[in-house]
Amino acid sequence: MLDAGQKAQPLPEFARLPSDLKQAAIDGYEKRKQFVGMCNRAGVRIVAGTDGAGLGTMLPGFGLQHELQLLVESGLTPLQAIQAATINAAAALRKEHDLGGVEPGYFADILILNADPLKDIGNTQKLDLVIYAGKSFKPTELLNVKDNFQ
Q1: How large is the C-alpha radius of gyration of the chain?
Q2: 34-52: per-residue pLDDT in tens?
Q3: What is the pLDDT of residue 148?
Q4: What pTM was estimated for this model as a whole?
Q5: Which of 16, 61, 135, 147 has a Cα-to-Cα distance from 29 of 20 to 30 A?
Q6: CA-CA distance, 56 to 37, in Å (whole number)?
Q7: Which pLDDT belongs to residue 8?
Q8: Residue-wise over 58-74: b if at least 16 C-beta within 10 A, else e?
Q9: Which distant-in-sequence residues (6+ apart) come within 8 Å of 125 by Cβ?
Q10: Would you state the pLDDT for residue 23?
């Protein structure tokens, strides 16, 4: 989802499909979403985590927001999608006593949102404040200052 004024980034050459494979790719994509939903309904722990920032100019965080949207489209509730990116991911790394929650002794970067993501997972994009490495930032500050990520 692009904000007003943003342009979609062109796909890198390696990510472009020949026209005769596009429908097969679309069908496969939909089948993968159905599979994730089936796994979730069967009780499989779903974990979110994306390397999307490696494609084009996508900054860290934007790929995960998109992944959360895809998880909801696959049948997870917004809460289950958020848990996939927090407590489930921490448990998969065997770091559930250090990460994945907001409580004393845990490491956490925190997003303060302007809208409820449990009502619409797209609200994860409505950032008001980011607390990163113990410092508060407006989202535009993080977009404009590369040194904040070091």
Answers
A1: 17
A2: 999 999 999 999 999 866 5
A3: 46
A4: 0.76
A5: 61
A6: 28
A7: 58
A8: eeebbbbbbbbbbbbeb
A9: 1, 65
A10: 87
Give dist(CA 39, CA 51) in Å, integer.
22
The rounded distance, in Å, linking the Cα atoms of 124 and 138 is 15
Residues with Cβ within 8 Å of residue 31, at least 6 apart in sequence:
none
Transcribe the chain into DSSP letters: -PPTT--PPPPPGGG---GGGHHHHHHHHHHHHHHHHHHHHTTPPP-----GGGSTTPPTTHHHHHHHHHHHHTT--HHHHHHHHTHHHHHHTT-TTTSSS-STT----EEEESS-TTT-GGGGG-EEEEEETTEEE-HHHHHH-GGGG-
